[in-house]
């Protein structure tokens, strides 16, 4: 009897141990799955931010083929194609994304962005019109402004640019775009003001510096603005001013600015030298 009792206790202990072992194995599996999910998310982020665009496209296209219903893979593929400047393929990829059940309004905005990059302005306009006005995002209004610009709907463009500026903590880029819009309309004073606003937010933005010089040159103001400039940048902006002066018939001023640009550049400034020689030969 005592032996049977001992055997029974032994079996109970064995079953209990087996139960604990199974529970432990399940927990381990769950932990491994969690780690894999984190690793996969990290890899996705790396591919979208740090990897070469072509490598990123290859990675996400493979992942999307393995699991077509995973929206993160489809999004990653679409974003990678945009980064790789494969615009038409990016449009097709974003169209696949917006058809998935988990797609968001931001995905529609990204589709509009891809359409603009592909030069399909009318389609982009329709996609943006389909986004409810309650969806207020910086990217949405920046794209609305760009589309309005392309349609020469200046009041709408100004309104959208103003909203976009208020929706970001880093407005330098959109202020530069807004300034270029004003420059293209011939409103040089407003353009100059917007380029200065852009540089106050990011004084490293060379495009805004160059556009600012174009706006000043269009007003026959051939002096460089008081902004932070490296020596090479200063030479390049003097070259821009020179070309602006020449275009407006102020040839002698243009020649003087070209000589100053050549003297300022820390290396041989071939473009300025070539422009000056062409002027002097005529």
UniProtKB/TrEMBL annotation:
Transmembrane feature ranges: none
Record's protein name: Tetratricopeptide repeat protein
Keyword Signal applies: yes
Signal sequence extent: 1-18
Cross-referenced InterPro entries: TPR-like_helical_dom_sf (IPR011990), TPR_rpt (IPR019734)
Pfam families: TPR_16, TPR_6
Keywords: Signal
């Amino acid at each position: 009897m005592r032996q049977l009792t001992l055997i029974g206790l032994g079996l109970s202990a064995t079953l209990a141990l087996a139960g604990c072992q199974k529970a432990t194995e399940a927990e381990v599996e769950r932990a491994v799955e969690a780690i894999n999910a984190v690793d996969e998310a990290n890899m996705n982020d790396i591919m979208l931010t740090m990897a070469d665009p072509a490598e990123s496209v290859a990675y996400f296209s493979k992942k999307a083929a393995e699991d077509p219903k995973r929206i993160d893979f489809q999004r990653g593929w679409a974003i990678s194609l945009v980064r790789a400047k494969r615009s038409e393929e990016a449009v097709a990829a974003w169209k696949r994304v917006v058809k998935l059940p988990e797609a968001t309004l931001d995905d529609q905005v990204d589709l509009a962005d891809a359409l603009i990059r592909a030069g399909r302005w009318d389609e982009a306009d329709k996609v943006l019109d389909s986004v409810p006005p309650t969806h207020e995002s910086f990217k949405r209004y920046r794209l609305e402004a760009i589309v309005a610009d392309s349609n020469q709907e200046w009041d709408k463009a100004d309104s959208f640019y103003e909203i976009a500026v208020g929706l970001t903590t880093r407005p330098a880029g959109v202020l530069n775009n807004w300034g270029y819009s004003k420059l293209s309309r011939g409103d040089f004073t407003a353009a100059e003001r917007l380029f200065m606003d852009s540089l106050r937010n990011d004084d490293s933005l060379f495009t805004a510096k160059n556009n600012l010089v174009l706006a000043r040159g269009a007003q026959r103001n051939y002096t460089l603005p008081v902004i932070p400039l490296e020596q090479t940048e200063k030479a390049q902006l003097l070259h821009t001013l020179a070309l602006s002066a020449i275009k407006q018939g102020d040839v002698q001023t243009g020649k003087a600015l070209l000589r100053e640009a050549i003297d300022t550049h820390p290396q041989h400034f071939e473009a300025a030298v070539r422009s000056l020689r062409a002027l002097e030969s005529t």
